[in-house]
Amino acid sequence: LAYVGLNPSELDFVGCGIGPGSLTGLRVGISTIKGFAFPFNLSVAVFCSLDVLAIASLNVEEKGVVIRRGREGHYYWRRYRLTSDELIQETSPAFSPLEELKKELNSDEIVVFEDHDYSLDLPGMSMRLAKPPAIEDLLRLTEKSYEKREFVNLRELAPYYLQKSVAEINWEKRHGSKKSP
């Protein structure tokens, strides 16, 4: 903020990617946003973390599916189309095993991956390594979320989890599917 000559009190809102992704990473990032926004009573406009990879990596008028490795052979994924005006989310974020993901993919789509070459796992698909998001990409997503009034109350700001934590899985294995106390 100092670089652009702003004070936090001059902001109307901040943006925050809420997942899906690394459970610990999401909690740290969201805690940082809460700590920054709370003293200044800032609104928080949220967006899906997969959207960042899509907007940075797809070309205009291109369809694609962003995939990110999850845990134990599962993948986070979401289908997109990028127009000259906006990123269109064609599905909700999902968490699927590889075999289910393969059934969802179409040969006319680009598969955007973050950090691992999936060409052996997904033969016959057009693949592309995700580009690192630019600040302009984050700004576009945050502004779009703001325009749609997709705000979250700071007290309710939480990660968008699609999978259970290891602690939850272990609890259920030991105690059944009852909720922990």
Keywords:
181 residues; 30% helix; Nucleotidyltransferase, domain 5; 3-stranded mixed β-sheet; single chain; 5 helices
Question: Could you please describe the fold and organization of this structure?
Answer:
With 181 residues, the chain is of the alpha/beta class. The protein has a single domain (8-175), classed as Nucleotidyltransferase, domain 5 (2-Layer Sandwich), CATH 3.30.420. It contains five helices and nine strands. It has helices at 23-37, 49-57, 98-104, 135-147, 166-175; strands at residues 13-17, 43-47, 62-69, 74-82, 87-89, 94-97, 110-113, 126-129, 151-152. Strands 3, 4, 5, 6, 7 and 8 form a six-stranded mixed sheet that branches. It has a three-stranded mixed sheet with strand order 1-2-9, with helices on both faces. A hairpin with a 4-residue loop joins strand 3 (62-69) and strand 4. The chain is flat and about 50 Å long. The mean pLDDT is 89.
CATH topology: Nucleotidyltransferase, domain 5
Contiguous helical run count: 5
Kindly name the structural category.
Answer: alpha/beta
**Overall geometry:** flat
Number of domains: 1
Beta fraction: 15-25%
The pLDDT mean sits at 89
Order of helices and strands: EHEHEEEEHEEHEH
- Distance between the ends: 42 Å
Radius of gyration: 18 Å
Q: What is the second-level CATH architecture? A: 2-Layer Sandwich
Determine and state the CATH class: Alpha Beta
Number of strands: 9
The biggest sheet, with number of strands, parallel, antiparallel or mixed sense and barrel status, is: 6 strands, mixed
Q: What is the percent of helical residues?
A: 25-40%
- Provide the low-confidence segments as ranges: none
